[in-house]
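TOKENISE THE FOLD
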Amino acid sequence: MARTSRSGPRVAHTTHPSLGEALSDIAEASQELVVDRLELLKLDVQEQVETAAKKAVRSAAAAALLFVGYLLLTAAAIVGLSFVIERRRCAASWPTTSGP
């Protein structure tokens, strides 16, 4: 049975391996498993960081748009109220005509 490892293809054992070779194979497979798990963990952390960064950017953009909307509504209210106040001033200062 031929196996491949990180260092390249391994030669198949034609006879049963010795105890030392078997222990060496087990140790090598364990090391490869640990390295593979660490690489997966690294990739998972990178993905989570990227996802969190995207969420933070989207949240900041939404907050900025909300603030701009608030400013626009406030400005519209100020302009509308100033128009109403000015109209009332003009109506109050308009000379009234008295009847004959």
About this structure: DSSP finds one helix and two strands in the chain. The longest strand covers residues 4-5. The CA atoms of residues 68 and 74 lie 10 Å apart.
